[in-house]
Amino acid sequence: MFIQTEPQDDPNVMKFIPGREVLSTGMVHYLDAEQAAGSPLATRLFAVDGVRSVAFDQEAIILHKAEEADWRLLKAPVLGIVMEHFVAGRPIVEETPATSDEPEMIGEPGPEASELRELIDTRIRPAVQPSGGDVVFRGIDAEGIVHLETTGSAASFLSRIEAMLKHYVPEVAGVREFLDTATKPGLVTPEGQAVREVLEERINPAVAGHGGHVALVDVQEDTVYIRLEGGCQGCGMADVTLKHGIEVEIRRAVPAIAQVLDVTDHAGGTNPYYQPGKGGISAV
Amino acid sequence: MSATAAGSVPQGRVLLLIPTTSYKAHDFLDAAERLGLAVSVGSDQPQVLEAFSQGGSVTVDFHDQERGLRQILDHAATYPLAAVLGVEDVTVRLAAEAAAALGLPHNPPEAVRASVDKLASRRALAEAGLPVPAFHVLGPADDRARAAREVAYPCVLKPLGLSASRGVIRADEPAAFLAAASRIATIAGTGPLLVESFIPGREVALEGLLTGGRLQVLALFDKPDPLDGPFFEETLYVTPSRLPEATQAEVRRLAQAMAVALGLEEGPVHGEFRVGDDGVWPLEMAARTIGGLCARSLRFPTGASLEEVVLRHVIGRPLAEGGPAEGASGVMMIPIPKRGRLRAVEGQAAARALPGIEEVTLTIPLGQEVVPLPEGDKYLGFIFARADSPDAVEAALRAAHGELDIVIG
């Protein structure tokens, strides 16, 4: 058995390709050992010091390591575990992996957490879902930071969600995107990597001239989700940059991509390059 | 003689002339995407990703009209155009000239030129016999002190250009007249001023679409806050109007007459009127849609936005059920209470949570300077509402504004 390794654009991510089927369908992603309890292989991989997350797709095991960890030290134990697992014929997943219906929670349950969950379920999710996104409450930590897992377009609502949660629950100090610290499965697909390459090598060097930056948030099927930052956030011409620049170039380079969606919270921009104003000359 | 939108649908892209400082880029591009319409954006500064745009972006000089026209014609040689649309005042004239040069539907350029010049506009309306306030021009070399002594008060001083009430000041006596003239010079330069009599009353605004010179009224807005000066900061727009039907009919009649007087024939128009005890007074008409983000308060049959209605018009695909805006709705342009640095806008969540409120959008980043009228050239933000009746819309907008605590340091 030969296990191929494939570094990714993100230096902390690496694919291990065993040359045989890993999952029969879909993809699973574990953020810690507790969440991975249903997968004997993931459980063993989390035992390796420096492994931060584990994902499986149909052909590969995708590991995300801690920043300070070194692949030269990690590779040997990881390869050993994977080799031994496949040779022994053990299952990759024994039971249905945890889903967003049973998410890992941050912080302790309490009245604030209950109130926040109700607010999110009854007020925020119905407002976000029609635009193609969703929000899952992942807890409130000791500093009052509410951790939310957003998908699709929901990231663009974060500042408004924060304002609403602060209004109704004074204990809330802020809101944080839960998945910003995790590797999203779509980002390590060939399409995800190709999109990242376009952004890093062609788009970002250009928008840097306006103090801007384009962050890749997620790739799901034929849709790319991006966030405009710096001078692009709140810029009056942001849509021109997106639709007549970023999307054109990504679709040209990655034909599998059909659309690019902007999930930027433009109202939160502090220094947009072009600021709208009552320009022009007119009688009215 | 202008071409008209009637007849066969032209092939090619729609060129949108959008200044980099426009509020409207997002809404027009969004509308084009919903229509599946290929558009190019012509703007006054090179777009940062223009090289990747495959003709989607083109730099156009809006101030040197001859150069701008050449740039558009060069672009059209590679990317054939079906229409050219100016979305802001600074681009409507060039759009008309480019469309004329390309044989596309357009307003006569001289008509558009008159619509963006307050003096030319006043003269055209007066010559057509429409009721206009008494007016005269105060030139840079004229004796201001003498003018201040001789003018009838109250009067209003305006620069010939600028929009959204910038530089418009009421004066009730000579000292205020002289102070206003000096202040306008610091805002708009030392060009001529239009001095006209102040007409008491409430204002209304009309949104319409011209086809071959015939006006289709899309919406009529009441402006329920008094606009009596000394500055004229617009706040509330509520539609449908609650004016008596006879008054509304008179506004519509005058709007059509204004378009004829100015010579406007094609595309969107935004008109403003005063309604006083002695009747309706036409003020101005611009060959574009309503300013800022205010168009977001309007929804048309099938959920179309105003931008979608306009784009459909320019490519000859009008809405099948094209008619006035549906339901009662409105917008508040959030007033800027004083000059300073914007530190915070508290209470947004409470405002959004009120019944009828659809959105609260800030358009000046925190930490930046805010400047009220007559100098200010930016909107602080917008509140949008929709309800069963205009009264409910107005109440919702006022309540939402009441929830906001605008902290300026």
What string, H for helix and E for strand, traces the elements of chain A in order? EEEHEEHHEEHEHEEHE
Broad structural category of chain B: alpha+beta
Helices of chain A, by number, come to 6
Task: Count all strands of chain B and give the number.
Answer: 19
Strand content bin of chain A: 15-25%
Overall geometry of chain B comes to: globular
* Total helical elements of chain B: 11
Strand content of chain B: 25-35%
Percent helix of chain A: 25-40%
Rg over alpha carbons of chain B: 21 Å
| Mean pLDDT metric of chain B | 92
Characterize the main sheet of chain A.
Answer: 5 strands, antiparallel
Q: Level of helix content of chain B?
A: 25-40%
| Broad structural category of chain A | alpha+beta
Strand order of the largest sheet of chain B: 3-2-1-4
- The number of distinct β-strands of chain A equals 11
Oligomer: heterodimer
Head-to-tail CA distance between termini of chain A: 76 Å
Q: Topology of this protein?
A:
The complex is a heterodimer of chains A (about 280) and B (about 400).
Chain A (H helix, E strand, L loop, with lengths): L3 E4 L5 E5 L10 E3 L9 H7 L4 E6 L4 E5 L5 H18 L22 H18 L4 E8 L4 E8 L5 H11 L5 E4 L12 H18 L4 E9 L2 E8 L7 H16 L5 E4 L22
Parallel strand pairs in A: 7-8, 10-11
Antiparallel strand pairs in A: 1-2, 2-5, 3-4, 4-5, 6-7, 9-10
Chain B lengths: L12 E5 L7 H11 L3 E5 L13 E3 L5 H14 L2 E6 L2 H14 L6 H7 L2 H10 L7 E4 L5 H7 L4 E5 L9 E3 L2 H15 L4 E5 L4 E10 L2 E10 L12 E4 L5 H18 L4 E10 L2 E8 L19 H9 L13 E6 L6 E7 L1 H5 L4 E6 L6 E2 L10 E7 L2 H14 L1 E4 L1
Parallel strand pairs in B: 1-2, 1-4, 2-3
Antiparallel strand pairs in B: 5-8, 6-7, 6-8, 9-10, 9-12, 11-14, 12-13, 14-18, 15-17, 15-19, 16-18
Helix pairs in contact in B: 1-9, 2-3, 3-4, 6-7
Structural commentary:
The complex is a heterodimer of chains A (284) and B (409). Chain A is α+β, with helices and mostly antiparallel strands. Chain A is globular, with a radius of gyration of 21 Å. Chain A has helices spanning 40-46, 71-88, 111-128, 158-168, 190-207, 238-253; strands at residues 4-7, 13-17, 28-30, 51-56, 61-65, 133-140, 145-152, 174-177, 212-220, 223-230, 259-262. In chain A, helix 5 (190-207) packs across helix 6 (238-253). The longest helix of chain A has 18 residues, at 71-88. In chain A, the strands form 3 sheets. In chain A, strands 1-2-5-4-3 form a 5-stranded antiparallel sheet, covered by helices on one side. Chain A has a 3-stranded mixed sheet with strand order 6-7-8, covered by helices on one side. Chain A has a 3-stranded mixed sheet with strand order 9-10-11. In chain A, strand 6 (133-140) and strand 7 (145-152) form a beta hairpin. Mean pLDDT of chain B is 92; it is low at 1-9. With 409 residues, chain B is α+β, with helices and mostly antiparallel strands. Chain B has 11 helices and 19 strands. In chain B, the strands form 5 sheets. Chain B has a 4-stranded parallel sheet, sandwiched between helices. In chain B, strands 5-8-6-7 form a 4-stranded antiparallel sheet, sandwiched between helices. Helix content of chain B is 30%, strand content 27%. Chain B is globular. At the A-B interface, helix 4, helix 5 and helix 6 of A face helix 1, strand 2, helix 3, strand 12 and strand 13 of B.
